[in-house]
């Protein structure tokens, strides 16, 4: 049986763009994965900033909203990147969203008022995707925190890998680093940055030994690759309590011992990653920590 192809246009707030000319499944459902385009997040362009360029100028060159580039490049939300900096440019306006456990395409589509099947196709028809691109949605800044935060390690630590879009070393692949990697000797104490309740404590895939703490202000912090864990799920912790020790469990992409630390905010999409340096009153970047290194947990 011959199946006709047709061109889909996805429209949002008056903006329309073609998604693809793909055949529908015989039952009218989603297109087969083998016929779908590559996921939007795999088609991000790496742009090297020229001396005369600002984010607004770069956005105009790619026919994008400057807010899109700010959302994709957290380090340059408050100022323009210097010449020579490599920034990530998505194929169209939109935002990156991390799906909450159990969240469906239909739920995300309803939140952003886009067709679920089109959203599914824009993201390569990947049933198990954890991070997706929602086209046509403008990024907006996150309010600054008002509560005083502690630090996840004793003393000051070097940031060996910053938050945001990064290139995997030697592979040329673009991926999103959802936290910061803090250099620390193996066995160093890992501390809760705020009081809260331990939501998870145990082994979890590439994160290795992981501790997740929910805080009263709607934030969540995550501490990955721990060598040992000193707390259990459901336990109440105070700011500064030791929750584990630095290790190298899981699959870190950076060989040097470090703590992978994340901050997330609760909203209708679940727990959405934010730049941890917006919440810590100290951070020191080592040479190259501005985002030219590889991706790591």
UniProtKB/TrEMBL annotation:
Keywords: Signal. GO terms for molecular function: metalloendopeptidase activity. Residues 1-21 form the signal peptide. This is M23 family metallopeptidase. InterPro entries: Cell_wall_metabolism_enzyme, Dup_hybrid_motif, LysM, LysM_dom_sf, M23ase_b-sheet_dom. Residues 47-90 form the LysM domain. Residues 176-266 form the M23ase beta-sheet core domain. Transmembrane segments: none annotated.
């Amino acid at each position: 049986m011959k199946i006709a192809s047709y061109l889909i246009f996805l429209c949002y707030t008056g903006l329309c763009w073609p998604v693809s000319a793909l055949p529908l499944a015989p039952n009218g459902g989603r297109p087969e994965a083998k016929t779908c385009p590559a996921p939007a997040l795999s088609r991000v362009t790496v742009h090297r900033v020229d001396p005369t360029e600002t984010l607004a100028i770069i956005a105009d060159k790619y026919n994008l909203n400057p807010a899109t580039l700010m959302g994709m490049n957290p380090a340059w939300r408050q100022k323009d990147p210097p010449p020579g900096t490599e920034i990530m440019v998505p194929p169209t306006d939109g935002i990156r969203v991390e799906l909450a456990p159990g969240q469906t395409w239909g739920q995300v589509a309803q939140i952003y008022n886009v067709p679920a099947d089109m959203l599914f196709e824009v993201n390569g028809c990947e049933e198990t995707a954890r991070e997706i691109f929602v086209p046509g949605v403008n990024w907006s800044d996150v309010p600054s925190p008002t509560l005083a935060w502690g630090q996840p390690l004793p003393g000051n630590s070097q940031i060996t890998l910053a938050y945001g879009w990064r290139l995997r070393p030697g592979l040329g692949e673009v991926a999103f680093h959802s936290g910061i990697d803090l250099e620390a000797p193996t066995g160093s104490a890992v501390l809760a940055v705020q009081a809260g309740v331990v939501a998870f404590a145990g082994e979890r895939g590439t994160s290795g030994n992981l501790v997740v703490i929910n805080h009263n202000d709607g934030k969540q912090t995550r501490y990955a690759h721990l060598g040992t864990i000193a707390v259990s799920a459901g336990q109440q912790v105070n700011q500064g309590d030791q929750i584990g020790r630095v290790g190298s469990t899981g699959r870190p992409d950076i060989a040097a011992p470090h703590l992978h630390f994340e901050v997330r905010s609760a909203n209708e999409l679940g727990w959405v990653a934010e730049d941890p340096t917006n919440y810590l009153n100290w951070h020191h970047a080592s040479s190259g920590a501005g985002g030219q290194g590889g991706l790591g947990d």
